Each structure stands twice: as structure tokens, then as C-alpha cells.
Amino acid sequence: MCVALPLGGIAAAPAQAQAPAQQPASAQPKAPAEEAERYGPFVYFPSAPNLLIYHTGVGANDMLNLKKALREHPSIGTLILQNNGGGLVHIGLVVAEEVYERGLNTFIPKDSYCASACAFVYFAGRQRLAEGRLGVHQISAPEMTGEQAQFGVSDIVATLPKYGVSADVLGIMFSTPSKEMYFFTPQEIAKYGINRTGQTQVAQNSPPPRGAGGGQANAPAATPVSAPAQAQTPAPAPAPAPAPAQTAHGGAAPVANPYMKKETAPAAISDEQKAINAAALMIQAGSGTNEESMNFTREFYADTVDYFKKTRPKSEILADKQAYFARWPIRRFVVDQSTLKAQCKDQMCKVVGIYDYKVSSPARGKAATGTSNFTYVLDLRNRYRIVMEDSVVISR
Is residue 165 part of a domain? Predict the structure, then answer.
């Protein structure tokens, strides 16, 4: 989703943001309006040479604008994500990869937000700090069709774990419908290791909340809004940002760098953890609408699969899944992260685990709940495609 910010609407950073020792926040000069240099949604202040503000949303030319800003100002080390409601999924992913490759830090200021495709950029930060609101949901890419949209799904599976994003966070992302938004509470940010500064916390491996749901992007920062998973009312787009704090010259004030000097490189992720993350997303992606779930399903399977103990072509599997989604149009799948285990050899990974399901068909007046186990074999060499699938209901 995209949001519009009034031209020139870059709000000042919170006064408590911690600045580097060599440039205390109190010593930073306030920039007159004419000092701001704009590169599309990116704004640079010469008085804060290590910072670049990224606001309003994620648009088609963002990668070109980012490269230009970084080329002209090589001192930039931190990307400030301010009132950025996301936008184009594939652009968010390539901007995130640029941030990761360059080792940039990311920061969401207090009383601000970063949601949807913007969250990919936040997670890519070498160091990252969310004092404001961070929102995630299933991807929705109306600007992409066919292979393009599928490419985005497998990119998320492959790249976000590389950025050090835990399976818990990915599970919440893929179990929140695309028309809703899940904002992490401060407690969840600490629990899942979402922030990563010089004092890095380790993410805990615990099940995602059963009630992950949507909320309004303009809710108070200290009280992220959530709703039941089956809520049918789409969350409204984030509201335009309030009028920015003004300097004596009428311009917006630059932001203070919140980071400590010590940096920690992200740890390498094993094939086993990659496979576990991918399998959890594959199960939970079925919680979307029929169209969304089929888009994901088309990406997940190899051309030929050992499917419930019988070799089947991909076309038969897609027909089977489509019939299931039509039979049960409202679905909720929650993976028990603590049960996930993987064994890999030569990038072929067997993943087993347990998930709870709740499905219903209002038209037929039917519903079903229970718990099932599953087994996948994933080919990491072939974009995490499923080459074997089996499942057994263990309780109803």
C-alpha cells in the first residue's frame, strides 16, 4: 500500500534519539528548507551527512533514486524509514537487497511507521532499530502478474532469513491477510529480536500469536492495533503524516542517528533453518484469500512431486489445491514453530512439523478444526520447490 505525504513533510526525529559521540544531537545544526536535497521519496540534509530519509511509500523509481543519493553522498550510513506505508513489493525487495549489500543501518523514528514493503527495507539493515511502528502482512502485488508475483514470494522465503528475520516474524507476516496489517508491540520487538544494535538480542523460537490480525496504521505507537484473523473489514491506508516540525527558516529538521558505534554482522543461516522458514510460510500462506493462496501455491511446487505417496505432475496438485480452497474459502493455519525440524543433504531438505487448522464454508454451513502433521522435502537448488509432500490429521 502507498501513502501520500504533503510535499516537504519530513517530520523531525524524536529528541531522545541517541546520536554518535562525534555528533551529539544537541550540536546538530537545524537545516533551512533550501538545504534539503530530494531524490524522489529520499531526502538528504547536508547538516546530517550520514543519514537519508525514506518516506511516503515504495515506488517504481526508488532504486534509481537511492543509488543516485548514495553515489552523490557516500557518507550516508543510515536510512531513516519515516511514515512509509510500503507499495510495490518487488521494488521493496530490491531496495532491501541494496541496503543489505551496502551494510546500511535502518531506523524507524518514534511517532512514525514503516509497513508492508517498507518492512523488507527495515529488516535488511545491518543494524536496525524500530522506535516507531513496524507493520507486516501477506504480500499483495496487483502490479505484478504470473511469474513476477511468484518471484516475490520465493524472494521473501530466500532473503528475509538471510537478514536475520526469525521464523516467528515470518510466520506472523504470512498469516496476516493482505488487507490487514499486523503491528508488532514493543514486547514482541524484544521477544523476536526485531531490533539489532550493538547489543543484539537473540530471537526466541516460539509460536506466533494465534490472533494475528490487522490494525490501523495511525494507531498510537504504544498500542499496536490487532483484530481477529477472520476480520473482513480492510484496514484503511495509513493517514498522511502530520505537519512537520519547522525550523526558524520554515524547513524540516534533520534526524539524529540512533546507533551505537559498535556494529555486528548478521550471522549466516543454515540450510536447515532456511528450509524450516520456507515450510512454515508455505503452510501459513494457505490462510489468504483463494486467489492469494493459489498464487503462492503455484510457486511452491516442482514440476513433478511425490504427493501423498503418489508421483503427480504439478498441474494435478494445483487442481487439487484449488478444489480444496473452493471447498473451504475461509482458512486459518498456524504452525507450531517448536515442532519444526529439518535435515538437509546437498540442499535437499526434509522438514517435519505440526500445525493447527480452522476452516469453514459459510455457503455450505460447514466448519472443521483440528491439528495435522506434515512432511515436506524441499529442493533449495530450485527456489525451495516442494518435491515431496505428505500430511496426516492427528486430532479433530
Answer: no
| 43 and 188 assigned to the same domain | yes
- 247 and 30 Cβ atoms separated by less than 8 Å: yes
Residue 162 lies in a domain: no
pTM of the model: 0.56
Contact criterion met (CB below 8 Å) for 200 and 193: yes
Angle ∠(71,77,79) on CA atoms, nearest 5: 95
User: CA-CA distance, 230 to 287, in Å (whole number)?
Assistant: 10
On whether both 242 and 292 belong to a single domain, the answer is no
What is the number of alpha carbons within 13 Å of residue 166 lying toward its C-beta?
22
3-state secondary structure of 227: coil
Cα–Cα distance measured from residue 318 to residue 49, given in angstroms and rounded to the nearest whole number: 52
Confidence of residue 159 (pLDDT cuts 50, 70, 90): confident
| pLDDT for the residue numbered 197 | 85
Alpha carbon distance 129, 341 (integer Å): 30
| Residue-wise pLDDT tens digits, 375-396 | 999 998 887 899 999 999 999 9
42 forms bridges with which residues in the sheet? 39, 54
Same domain, 118 and 230: yes
> Do 96 and 210 reside in the same domain of the chain?
yes
At residue 277, what is the residue type? N
Domain count, the chain: 2
Q: Are residues 109 and 223 part of one domain?
A: yes
Print the domain residue range for 299: 271-395
Spell out the residues 6+ positions from residue 231 whose beta carbon is closer than 8 angstroms to its own. 180, 213, 214
